[in-house]
Write a structure and sequence with these properties.
This protein is mainly α. It is built from 16 helices and no strands. Helix content is 79%, strand content 0%. It starts with a helix and ends in a 5-residue tail after the last helix.
Length: 336
């Protein structure tokens, strides 16, 4: 299941076979198109994936197809809209998928919880934090009732709730929820999960920003441990853990330590086009440190590329871009 190139190859073969033997409106031909689009999205080829998924969606609508086939399509199609910067369209598709789940099964079916989770995540991405918090709370209650407290489903909802509280500026509440979510992941055990790593990284950034050095040291060390053990110390995800740790070091005033962590992260991101957003983020932070250390020329060299990289994807990153532009303006001021 993790072999994405093989998945794309098999999906290509399925579409080729359906083109030879089935009508374009046949449900199996549409399913093949959906599978190819989904495989492309997993490979971050959003242009190809979006083309297949939109065509499959049109054909489903024309045929009045509902149920699991439509549910399978709406999720990846929403992801394409999101990555292209169409947040409201993505939210609409996610809401449609939730309603389709309820109509296909029943409102209390355990499979419906994924739909609540997805809507909450979309609302958080749109910075509609009050709505997102309410939806995460609803999701957590739903998953708790169906799967219990020590389940991946309930813990994921709890971590999402913590994230929305953090982004809304409710730091004390977010601290408590992150602590609870990370404890639940520890009780579940097993190989580190990517959502577990994300939760530890967000907790790491929160505690660093709060200047709670003891909690930051604990959560940042956990993030690094999980990303290295689960995904490799040479992975971009581990770079994210190092970068998360750097934020707290900047707040603590240890700029050299932060610079070293960001440089390590930058090395792990490499030249892969898929990591350009990460590179832009790291370079922007390195430029900020350079300015603080009286090196405006170094900052000027980093920032134009950082701003370009932050524009790589169309989803919301205005605060990062605005910060990078402000730093660039500072490097160009008469006193620099």
């Amino acid at each position: 299941l993790g072999d994405i190139p093989k998945s794309r190859k098999l999906a290509d073969q399925a579409v080729a076979l359906s083109n030879r033997s089935l009508s374009p409106s046949d449900i199996n031909a549409i399913r093949a198109l959906t599978a190819r689009g989904y495989a492309a999205v997993r490979d971050e080829d959003y242009a190809a994936g979006g083309a297949d998924l939109r065509l499959a969606h049109q054909r489903m609508q024309a045929q009045g197809i509902h149920g699991e086939a439509l549910i399978d399509l709406l999720g990846p199609l929403a992801a394409v809209e999101n990555i292209e910067g169409h947040g409201e369209a993505s939210l609409q598709l996610t809401r449609e998928a939730l309603q389709e789940r309820i109509a296909t099964w029943v409102a209390d079916d355990p499979r419906v919880g994924v739909g609540y989770n997805d809507v909450a995540s979309e609302l958080e991405g749109l910075e509609r934090y009050d709505e997102a918090i309410r939806m995460w709370q609803k999701t957590q209650r739903f998953e708790l009732a169906h799967f219990g407290p020590n389940s991946n489903e309930t813990t994921l909802a709890l971590a999402g709730w913590a994230s929305a509280e953090w982004r809304a500026g409710h730091w004390a509440g977010a601290h408590n929820l992150f602590t609870e979510a990370l404890a639940a992941y520890a009780r579940i055990g097993g190989k580190p999960q990517v959502t577990q790593v994300y939760t530890a990284q967000k907790a790491c950034v929160l505690e660093g920003t709060r200047a709670d050095h003891a909690s930051a040291a604990r959560d940042c060390a956990l993030a690094q441990k999980l990303s290295a053990a689960g995904f490799g110390a040479d992975s971009p995800l581990h770079g994210d853990s190092l970068e998360s740790t750097a934020f707290g070091e900047i707040e603590a005033g240890d700029l050299d330590r932060a610079k070293a962590l960001l440089a390590q992260a930058r090395k792990l991101y490499g030249d892969d086009p898929a990591n350009r957003m990460r590179v832009g983020r790291a370079d922007s932070e390195l430029a900020g440190i350079a300015l603080l250390q009286g090196q405006p020329a170094l900052a000027r060299g980093l920032l134009p590329g950082a701003i370009r990289d932050l524009h790589t994807r169309a989803y919301k990153v205005p605060p990062l871009i605005a910060e990078a532009r402000l730093l660039l303006a500072c490097t160009q001021s008469p006193g620099s």
